[in-house]
Design brief:
With about 210 residues, this protein is mainly alpha-helical. The protein has one domain. It is built from eleven helices and no strands. The longest helix has 25 residues. It starts with a helix and ends in a 17-residue tail after the last helix.
Length: about 210
């Protein structure tokens, strides 16, 4: 059923490429969100630059970009690895969007949306930990780079226990690796103690990312 892999890869990438953060920046403030803050189009930069209300809109939209391709893949094929391809393609689309000059986000919400569609219970169980971590530290990137590997480990353990397909574990490991790699600058700032907290870091950029 090779056609299902190709179809879901295309669907995932195209849906993931929908630049909701960029559109919200234009709609709310008439700005290119990539010229502010981190230069990314995801929830955190929209939150810092445009505000909480619009940030929530982008968060929900980016979660859906990851979840919907996985649901479509499940309808089209019984092969779990088709869902893996759909979810990863959505994350790639968000990070390097066709419709926004291949300059997007870091894939955290979109990757989590796909994981949520694969295993809702295990994924939802991560939410209180993530919210608590942000509540204590007020550093979004710490949650992202911290929870992505933890979720990957949880998905691997669940696969080893036979509680969900190994395809889901493969997805989680690759998605976590992508998130960590795309947060290299954040990790450097975290180690240096200079990473912006919530409410900081939304200034206009003086250089292109």
């Amino acid at each position: 059923m090779w056609w299902a892999f190709l179809a879901c890869a295309a669907i995932g990438y195209l849906l993931g490429s929908a630049p909701f953060g960029l559109l919200v920046g234009y709609a709310a403030r008439g700005i290119d969100i990539r010229q502010y803050g981190s230069g990314r189009t995801g929830f955190t930069n929209v939150l810092r630059t445009v505000g909480a209300r619009w940030g929530v809109v982008v968060l929900v939209a980016d979660l859906a970009k990851g979840a919907v391709p996985v649901v479509i893949a499940r309808v089209l094929s019984d092969e779990p690895y088709v869902q893996t391809v759909a979810g990863l393609a959505a994350a790639v689309g968000h990070d390097w969007p066709l419709f926004a000059g291949f300059r997007g986000g870091r894939g955290v919400a979109t990757s989590f949306g796909a994981a949520l569609a694969m295993n809702p219970i295990a994924s939802a169980a991560m939410l209180p930990v993530g919210v608590g971590l942000v509540g204590v530290t007020r550093i979004m990137s710490l949650m992202s780079v911290g929870l992505a590997p933890v979720m990957a480990l949880v998905f691997v353990v669940l696969a080893a226990m036979g509680l969900h397909p190994w395809a889901y574990a493969v997805y989680a490991v690759i998605a976590a690796a992508m998130v960590v790699v795309l947060h290299q600058e954040n990790i450097k700032r975290l180690l240096a103690g200079t990473e912006p907290r919530l409410g900081e870091g939304g200034a206009h950029r003086t250089f292109e990312p």
